[in-house]
Design brief:
It is a single chain. By secondary structure, the chain is of the alpha/beta class. The protein contains 19 helices and 12 strands. An 8-stranded parallel beta sheet has the order 4-11-10-9-8-7-6-5. A two-stranded antiparallel ribbon has the order 1-12. Strand 9, helix 16 and strand 10 form a beta-alpha-beta unit. Helix 15 packs across helix 16 and helix 18 crosses helix 19. Bound molecules: flavin mononucleotide (FMN).
Length: about 375
């Protein structure tokens, strides 16, 4: 049967993924921080953004392509960096990199991925983005940047909305530790998910492979309890942005910007773009919805803007573009797709999103993405 008949939307993939990955993995992937008010706010705020339908536009095929950071993309979205991606599905990073390359969309790898830049290098397409959790040690920083560049990553993303680790209470309740340790409780959860378990048995329990090389530095560092990713990482400041700008010749994006004045300052410092995000509600439960702050940031800066946080379909992508984003990324969605259907789920999700954008562009009478009508506020449903 056609996948579109069985799983017409992301909600269907999410539902199936939940039944195919162990509970502690699900809780890691799906949870926000606190009471998950920010996560809920992201959804509610997106739902309130409307556009007027357009009529009598005649017959046409909408053009979904866009230019961003000097490159041409067939679609206006890509894969956001997800730490421990390979915990959600075996070889997630490899599958995502290959699917993104086939579709011509960006793939972002996290510093704390379960595969190293060298592992995924051979699978990368033209648009490979490397996300940095900023190492404290300048030697390690330089080494990471060199490795990323040598592996084929052309765009650097500095994530700035994780100055400290967040308390993800749902994750804690599920029994997940970092790095994951298979306690009897977790093993009982794994036993209920045979496809996931078989894949992990073949590949071994995932860990942050890209950081293996820096083991000694982590052992010598301060905290005896935190995992490798946290041991190496510092809370960056404005000087850190400057160092990175001087060290990295490719495109440089700052991820986790929620304020217009920060965007302006980053523009002055030579960033190539900013990434508006509240980390999908995983960091701070009193943050506004990311989509709510987008218009002010758009008005304040001429920099290219990437947007994420709570995007669940093609219509959401159009909403963000209508409010001034230039490009849109999705994190959880791609992992729901993988959990639901394995690697073919990624292609299917890309197809769902493209069809959804196309259908909605038809309704608003937009021929291209630069032709979107102004967003209007909707009443709550
Ligand atoms: C399980 C999980 C892990 C994440 N890990 C990282 C990470 O390592 N680095 C980073 O910059 N952002 C990370 N993020 C945030 C995503 O890059 C992205 O901002 C967010 O997921 C977008 O919202 P969405 O999941 O609703 O699409 C993570 C998000 C999730 C859900």
């Amino acid at each position: 049967m056609d996948l579109h008949n069985q799983y017409p939307s992301l909600a269907d993939l999410r539902h199936r993924a939940r039944r195919r990955i162990p509970k502690f993995v699900w809780e890691y992937l799906d949870s926000g921080t606190g009471d998950e008010a920010t996560k809920a706010r992201n959804r509610a705020a997106l739902d309130r953004i409307g556009m007027m339908p357009g009529i009598l536009g005649g017959e046409y095929t909408p053009d979904l392509s866009t230019r961003f950071l000097g490159a041409q993309f067939p679609l206006p979205f890509g894969v956001a960096p997800i730490g421990m991606s390979g915990l959600m599905w075996p070889d997630a990073e490899g599958h995502l990199a290959r699917a993104a390359a086939r579709a011509g969309i960006p793939y972002s790898i996290s510093t704390v991925a379960t595969q190293s830049p060298e592992d995924v290098g051979p699978h990368l397409g033209e648009h490979a983005w490397f996300q940095l959790y900023p190492p404290r040690d300048p030697e390690i920083r330089r080494d990471m940047l060199e490795r990323a560049k040598a592996a084929g990553f052309t765009t650097l993303i500095l994530t700035v909305d994780v100055p400290v680790s967040s308390r993800r209470e749902r994750q804690v309740r599920s029994g997940l530790t970092n790095p994951p340790r298979l306690t009897p409780r977790l093993l009982a959860q794994v036993a209920l998910r045979p496809a996931w378990a078989a894949g992990m048995a073949r590949r071994g329990m995932p860990h942050m492979r890209g950081l293996d090389k820096y083991g000694d530095a982590a052992i010598n560092s301060r905290s005896p309890t935190a995992h490798m990713g946290y041991l190496l990482r510092t809370a960056p400041d404005w000087d850190y942005v400057k160092w990175l700008r001087d060290e990295w010749q490719g495109n440089f994006l700052i991820k986790g910007v929620m304020r217009a004045d920060d965007a302006v300052r980053l523009e002055e410092m030579g960033a190539d773009g900013i990434w508006v995000s509240n980390h999908a509600g995983r960091q701070f439960d009193a943050a506004p919805a990311a989509i709510e702050v987008l218009p002010d940031i758009r008005a304040a800066t001429g920099l290219p803007i990437v947007f994420d946080s709570g995007i669940e379909g093609g219509l959401d992508i159009l909403r963000a573009l209508a409010l001034g984003a230039d490009f849109v990324m999705l994190g959880r969605a791609f992992h729901f797709a993988l959990g639901a259907l394995g690697p073919r789920g990624i292609d299917h999700l890309i197809d769902i999103l493209a069809r959804d954008i196309t259908a909605n562009m038809g309704q608003i009478g937009a021929r291209s993405l630069s032709d979107l009508p102004e967003a209007i506020p909707l009443s709550p449903r």
